[in-house]
Amino acid sequence: MGSKLLAAVRKTNNIRLKNKLIISIVVVVFIPVLLVGIILTASYRQNVLDQATQQTMNNVDKIKKRVLDILRMPIEISNNLMVDNRLSNLVNTRYESTLDLVKAYWDFRNFRDYVKLYKEIHNVRFYTANPMPISNWDFLSTDESIKNADWYQEALDKSSLSISWHYVPDETKENRAYLSLIRKIDFPAYRSYGILVIDLDQDELNGILSQEPFDTMIFDAKGVIVGAKNPQWVGRKIDGMDFANDLSDKPAGTYEFNYEGKPSRIVVEEVHPPSSRNGLKIVSVFAVDSIVSGANRVGRLGFTIIAASLSIAFVLIYFISSFLSRRLLLLYKVLGKVSMGDLNAVSEVDGNDEIGVLSKQFNHMLASIRSLMLEVSESQRQKSLLELRQRDIKLKMLASQINPHFLFNALESIRMKAHVKGRRKFPMWCGSWAS
User: In whole angstroms, how far apart are CA 42 and each of 29, 31, 35, 67, 310?
Assistant: First the structure.
């Protein structure tokens, strides 16, 4: 392990200083800042999405409570009508004349009073199993179209204690459909029955959803939208929507789907009114992009600031490293001249940073070397002069030690050889010696 680390360190020694600085800033600053930015942006985005989901769930829960409050009223009305003797007598009495029946219809004002007293109720009507001589808008005889209707057949198959909710047309209101309470009312004393239908006010249902920030709707057990933020959706089958197939069997909760081609979250809540065999579902849909757009905008702004800061830092590091590299290169060139023997070279790198101090110390070192070389050269010259003087003194000492008689004999021998060779003239010193 130690050898590998040492080898890695040695490899880094071969990298230029500029590249080391750039690599260091990338590893130490760029990558960590980018990672932190990505993590923080993702966390912020997820937090915003979770908060929006939680807020939507709270809104849906409030809608559920308000819907239950609206549904409670027709349930109470149906409970009252189940034990209303006037209703039982009116439906099961055989009137002697049509006038008596009309008078009985007029005297029974409960249905109209309920509509006037409670804004949640749009209409109340009663379908009698026994044919009535005449019908009004409150009491109607069942024709074949009514008998064959699914909601009517379903009501006949269940007991009077069971309530169902359906989106059915009201023939007394130009066949406009409403979310209605359907309930069978038995008259045991007369062994007869009838089907009570209480229409809910459509504006009340839509009014609950109108202030919602996202697309919100209420649909019945058959998938018919009975209330929506967008009133134009009322009456449509939810099967025509993107998420219908995946949503049909889903319990209450939060799910992710593609809604209108966009990643979305859907909050589902079930509504089960008391004494009801079926209920409603509340669905709120919001596109993920619409929620996280603010977070994405903040993230983009943050990344822009980070990118600008990192770019400025990179430019500064690049120029600073280039400046340092140039100063080191100047010092390197001076070192090259010195290595070639030019001790008169001078480093011109100035400043008080490390490189400037190194340059000054290098110039001081060169000056010291030149001074030392001058001292050595002067010492060598003094030594050579001393040796010459010593040799001269030795010669003089030797000369002073020569015997004068020996010198005379040598000169006489020279004169005699010259005389033998016929030379008559002699130096003056020879004559002086001869005399």
Answer: 20, 16, 11, 37, 20
Q: Dihedral through CA 195, CA 165, CA 227, CA 250, nearest 10?
A: -160
Taken in order 319, 323, 324, 325, the sign of the CA dihedral is positive
CA 367 to chain centre: 62
CA angle 284, 285, 288 (to 5 degrees): 140
The pLDDT of residue 423 is: 60
pLDDT digits (tens, 9 = 90+) for 350-380: 777 777 777 788 788 878 888 888 888 888 8
User: How is residue 131 annotated by DSSP?
Assistant: P
Q: In the chain, which residues have pLDDT < 70?
A: 1-15, 17-18, 159-160, 241-249, 290-293, 295, 399-407, 423-435
Residues 6+ apart with CB under 8 A from 335: 362
Residues 57 and 352: beta-carbon distance below 8 Å: no
Q: What does the angle CA 172 – CA 175 – CA 181 come to, to the nearest 5 degrees?
A: 75
What strands lie across the sheet with 121-128, from one edge to the other? 139-141, 121-128, 192-200, 176-187, 163-170
259-315 confidence digits (pLDDT tens): 777 777 888 889 999 888 888 999 888 777 766 667 677 777 777 887 887 788 778
Is 230 in a helix, a strand, or coil? coil
Query: What are the DSSP E strand ranges found in 96-201?
Result: 121-128, 139-141, 163-170, 176-187, 192-200
The residue among 161, 153, 203, 195 whose CA lies nearest residue 178 is 203
Per the structure block, which two tokens stand in for 363?
């110039």
Residues 161 and 167: beta-carbon distance below 8 Å:
no
Q: Could you give the angle at which helices 17-25 and 288-339 cross, rounded to 10 degrees?
A: 160
Distance, in Å, from the CA atom of 205 to the CA atom of 228, rounded to the nearest integer, reads 8
Q: What are the CB-based long-range contacts (under 8 Å, 24+) for 338-344?
A: 338/366, 343/369, 343/370, 343/373, 344/370
CB contact at 8 A, 305 and 36: no
Question: How confident is the model at residue 432, as a pLDDT?
Answer: 46
Largest CA distance in the chain: 213
In angstroms, the CA 66 to CA 78 distance is 19
Rounded to whole angstroms, how far apart are CA atoms 127 and 184? 10
